[in-house]
User: Fold Amidohydrolase-related domain-containing protein from Streptomyces paradoxus.
Amino acid sequence: MIETPSLVDQYCHGVLRTELGLGTFEAHLSHTEGPPAPGTTLFDTQTGFAVRRWCPPLLGLEPHCAPARYLARRRELGVLASGRRLLRGSGITTYLVDTGLPGDLTEPGELACAGAAEAREIVRLELLAEQVADTSGTVESFLANLAESVHAAAANAVAFTSVAGVRHGLALAPEPPGPGEVRGAAGRWLAGRGVGGELSDPVLLRHLLWSAVASGLPLQLHAGLGAPGLRTDRTDPVLLTDFVRATAGLGTDLVLLHGYPYHRNAAHLAGVFPHVHVDCGAALVRTGARAATVLAEILELAPFGKILFSTGAQGLPELHVVGARLFREALGRVLGTWVDEGAWSLADAQRVAGMLASGNARRVYGLDQGT
Amino acid sequence: MIETPSLVDQYCHGVLRTELGLGTFEAHLSHTEGPPAPGTTLFDTQTGFAVRRWCPPLLGLEPHCAPARYLARRRELGVLASGRRLLRGSGITTYLVDTGLPGDLTEPGELACAGAAEAREIVRLELLAEQVADTSGTVESFLANLAESVHAAAANAVAFTSVAGVRHGLALAPEPPGPGEVRGAAGRWLAGRGVGGELSDPVLLRHLLWSAVASGLPLQLHAGLGAPGLRTDRTDPVLLTDFVRATAGLGTDLVLLHGYPYHRNAAHLAGVFPHVHVDCGAALVRTGARAATVLAEILELAPFGKILFSTGAQGLPELHVVGARLFREALGRVLGTWVDEGAWSLADAQRVAGMLASGNARRVYGLDQGT
Amino acid sequence: MIETPSLVDQYCHGVLRTELGLGTFEAHLSHTEGPPAPGTTLFDTQTGFAVRRWCPPLLGLEPHCAPARYLARRRELGVLASGRRLLRGSGITTYLVDTGLPGDLTEPGELACAGAAEAREIVRLELLAEQVADTSGTVESFLANLAESVHAAAANAVAFTSVAGVRHGLALAPEPPGPGEVRGAAGRWLAGRGVGGELSDPVLLRHLLWSAVASGLPLQLHAGLGAPGLRTDRTDPVLLTDFVRATAGLGTDLVLLHGYPYHRNAAHLAGVFPHVHVDCGAALVRTGARAATVLAEILELAPFGKILFSTGAQGLPELHVVGARLFREALGRVLGTWVDEGAWSLADAQRVAGMLASGNARRVYGLDQGT
Assistant:
């Protein structure tokens, strides 16, 4: 009843280029610290069950078939052919791709080609700074090169993304750090790091956030369980409130990614502040059969024009499939129920479905403008 | 199946006396910091959709009609006639009205008259103190006049309400401040403020809370998203635990307003402490089609004798309608499902429905006693 | 459709040996600070309604009969006979019993006999330390006797349990305290305490936790609303993150009890750390008709091999019944719905039901090994 013909995945990563064995595939189903507990498997999770539901039919198998059987079929087809079948079966027509993860992952262009879709790049601020640090000799050259890199990235990318919450926690001082403060922090960081060293200094993280805000490009902020972090409560989006208030009216949109289990707080910020938007997809991949409820919780407070779909998928094209299918089914069920109950009109439900699936992302990221 | 013939709205405000254009009406649908984001409208929210569902039929239009059509019809009838139709269609028989908001809002008597209902006053502590400060010359006269005003208010009002959580956060020291501390804080506040200056000093906020507790009148505490505050997590009702414990056994009832998204914590306090009660209505206006779930979450831990309905409505009689209709429908659906599943008996469900709709409020606020 | 023939209750207490009047029975339905509010009763709670639903038929009465009628029938049968009927009607085949509560409660052996089931002991660390302190003259003898007692307990019990979160909060320093620190804290505690004095010193609480970890026995940690504590948010399991990380890879399993209303955080930890498991039962007794939803929230992030059933029942055999029945019904409804929707296969649902009901507990506590 509720159709979403086109899906813009506003946040995902590329897929692995190599053939995968059962153990490696399993490890990519979840973010864990350590291997599965003895006697358990990560296939026995909502994500694992969702993969077994949606993906086997795309490779010619029955739903819910055993993991070993699925992996054997996947290897039989080969990583390229199975990836193409999966991505093309996802229903995603545009991928916005965070290229800031390590590993042998496909670039946006490859993902577009495999998925017969469009793809655009999202630049991860912390990696950008680390790459600049690897090639800059002094504090002054680091800061100058960084400014230039942010400027150059802004010309090509559709958004910046920050994992400041994962690296440090979202309880950052809200205002931009002063130039002397930034120089001091940069000096200490550069002096102490080896090549590839990770950026987690709070002053530099804030400097990156404000550099991105100044660029005018939408800024995506990881919150909640988006990535394995030090402690979940330190990524509660409510901790961003003062930063959100400080960036109001500057013309830059903020997008809160993931959010779960604090997605009601993220939705609240999207309701209060004009420039804040909220992701409604990445949590669905983690919660599987519960996707409709999690989506409905986001739909409580967030204005419907501020909610954007994503898969948050990383490494496995199966996760792009699962994210897209769960979202479509959950959206259809939630909005369809409200129409059946008389709470919403069918016309409104169809309109809102289109906004969440692609319309809002097209507006926020300017996807219909020439680049 | 589950009937609630009479509704006591235990917390609301008056309605605007002036005709409203589309933009002003829209602005009253939500608490935001700033105008709607470009390309979005506050009608595309759960509150907006709920207004479009429930209110047009009361003005002779079809449900879900376009906002502009609804506003035209509203203006055609005029603010008085449309207000009367809406309020009388809400099913509310008693309004408890917080008169402490600025703006051209109807007084309790006018609201009662327009709604063909009863109305009683709730006195907002912070406004009372600000009004006393405006007319007191010295610290001593301020404190003496304040004590007298609280005493006088207690004789006429049904409850006090406090927005200490919005002004400062609920993490206040739990014990009453000493007289010297209060005098010092009053002196500093009076010296620094102009006429109408807001009270946010934590010592004076605590002094007000304890003055209200001493009066014996029920004290309503704003928690969660009830009003736009500095940061949502600072209004988590769990932060009130020590204050709740300090006021146990003194004979004064506490009522936690709103609560959402921390309503499970509010319900828990109502379960543990005999004098704590919890609001179950104001969150429904914000969450619309999700009202049944939010209500059910409150019904997890809160004893059924401690849960009170309200609309939290402010400015628009549409919000009184939506609050009442959503509550009635959600209550019927939640309790009806439990009866269908065999979890509750029908007799119990009907009894509990009456308690939430009006019985608990009548008991807590002594509404059946002569005044 | 979804069957759970055998239930292992991984955390409960014994039942009262004495006949109960209506008021005493009512007081055991809930953890409150103070008597029910005037005009209310603790029977008007989810727990009260669940007891009235499930227990009267086991004593030959109709469901939902009035509390006084139920209590009269219970006294007519006598505490022993009614207890036997109730426990044997619960479907629980193995009870793991925390013997660390005061009061005239049945021992594991008696519970096993009354319930025609097996029972094993869980040792409460804080009580163990208090008992050792009662009989130790010096700091040195206290610490030596404590080490010996933990060692001896580990040989007979199936698990240790800790209420550190209730006594102090879960925000404990994650690493083991040094020997000098422990001696100092023990000296101060022993000097200040009378016989039976409660242990709440954070250094000693941590020493107990690490002693338990060293024993290799599973360690159950109270979190969320499991027991009346100082403030609920201080028992959020997210506060355990650093302790969890510090104990990873040591070979000792951790089990997070209760969790609600922070059960999504508990489930997340079980998803990230191989040695963390999560309770899914005790919250159901508190939330009654909402049990299916609360269970489903735990099933969002927790791997299915890491979720364990318990009743958390204490004092009343009615609570064992209610815990078991609510769990079975909720599990059947939640997994059955997912099968109906095509999200899960029936075979997977049946397998997962068996894991939650007993299989996971058998593995974690080694219940199938000879002892």
In short: Chain A has a mean pLDDT of 96. The longest helix of chain A spans residues 317-340.
